[in-house]
Write a structure and sequence with these properties.
Elements (H helix, E strand, L loop, with lengths): L9 H10 L12 H4 L3 E5 L7 H9 L12 E5 L4 E8 L11 H11 L2 H8 L5 E8 L4 H22 L7 E8 L2 E7 L13 E6 L22 H20 L1 H4 L5 E4 H9 L9 H25 L3 E6 L2 E6 L2 H11 L8 H6 L12
Parallel strand pairs: 3-4, 4-5
Antiparallel strand pairs: 1-2, 2-3, 5-6, 6-7, 8-10, 9-10
Helix pairs in contact: 4-6, 7-9, 7-10
Length: about 350
């Protein structure tokens, strides 16, 4: 069995937060942010900082990141609120001003509703920031929150304006249940329970992990092996669905398999609101490499079938319906490693608890 842990796993951390932002069945995973009236606006967007703030930071020799990419921006249209979530695998090192993590927190503090409204053309009046950690010592996180407050106060004075203070959260497991715990010293997030923790989902043994992966892989090199298996299994399954539609397409002279339209938008439901061009390019390339293995095997087996790679996918040369039947039959025989058993058998196995935090 492949063990999946939140510790050192920012990908599954992001997927949990995305599911909490979707309108889903509460019996499986609590759509907490969605129930608060939020929906996903965009995933991993670039947010250039305003020139005014950039100039002031430069004049005061304060290091920052000019185009930070928060994990997700949520929008509450009714209340005109933005909710930006930044996921961290480890805590910001605020003792060293030259580290990337310290530069990130400076940029994160400068976010505001006007900046986001200008970037996306959607009016909003308020802004909430959340720094989420997948595994963190509670005492260290409390100390860190105090340091962030100090940074916020310094930036307030520097810019002569109200700088937003992000809240902090982390996941933990207790009694076979996954919770999200908040540290919110200035009560910036409404509707949190009295003990500042939200039940996310049950971790009973019969819970299969595969559906959790809205985004199964990323380009950071931190993709866990289970997410990778889920990704390749979905590609193969959706290619099979495409083959099932070929009888209706055979009348066309050119049969095009569009990788993004026929595969990726089906296996990654948030594809259209995912703004990270670098990661999406990586995923397109990985999908093509995997499909090359499948399609080349089919070409070797079937004399009346050939293909040509094109920019957006493949141009398939299929002579007639008998070729379609051969494709389906041979496709069922295709065996690519690291697929079925691991995905079918793997269950939720988060290896941490609040006692460890």
């Amino acid at each position: 069995m492949i063990e999946v842990s939140l510790e050192n796993n920012p990908l599954i951390q992001l997927n949990l937060l995305l599911w909490m932002s979707l309108n889903g069945k509460e019996s499986w995973l609590n759509p907490y942010f969605n129930k608060m009236g939020y929906e996903i606006l965009v995933i991993e967007p670039e947010l250039p900082l305003p020139p005014k703030h950039v100039n002031i930071l430069n004049q005061n020799n304060i290091e920052f990141i000019d185009n930070p990419k928060p994990e997700v921006i949520l929008l509450n249209k009714e209340n005109k609120n933005y909710f930006i979530i930044e996921c961290k695998n480890q805590c910001f090192n605020l003792d060293n001003k030259d580290t990337r993590s310290t530069k990130q927190v400076v940029s994160f503090l400068i976010y505001n509703a006007d900046l986001i409204s200008e970037s996306f053309g959607i009016e909003a009046e308020n802004y909430i920031g959340l720094l989420n950690y997948n595994f963190m010592k509670n005492d260290f996180l409390t100390e860190f929150s105090q340091k962030v407050i100090e940074m916020q106060e310094n930036l307030n004075e520097l810019f002569n304006e109200n700088i937003n203070l992000p809240s902090t959260s982390y996941f933990f497991e207790k009694d076979e249940t996954l919770y999200l715990k908040f540290i919110d010293p200035k009560n910036t997030i409404p509707e949190i329970s009295d003990n500042n923790q939200i039940k996310v989902m049950s971790l009973k043994e019969n819970n299969i992990l595969a559906p959790l992966y809205l985004i199964p892989i990323d380009s950071s090199g931190n993709t866990d092996k289970y997410g990778e298996i889920v990704f390749y299994k979905r590609i193969k399954s959706n290619f099979g669905v495409f083959l099932g539609k070929l009888n209706n397409l055979i009348k066309n002279e050119n049969i095009i398999l569009d990788i993004e339209k026929e595969i990726l938008k089906n296996i990654i439901n948030v594809w259209d609101i995912w703004n990270n061009a670098e990661t999406k390019k990586y995923i397109r390339n990985q999908t093509r490499l995997y499909l090359n293995k499948i399609i080349s095997k089919l070409e070797k087996k079937i004399d009346t079938f050939s293909y040509q790679s094109i920019n957006n996918g493949y141009n398939l040369d299929i002579q007639d319906k008998s070729t379609v039947e051969e494709l389906r039959k041979e496709f069922l025989k295709v065996n690519i490693k690291r697929e079925n058993k691991a995905v079918k058998n793997n269950q939720l196995n988060f290896n941490f608890s609040e006692d460890d935090i």
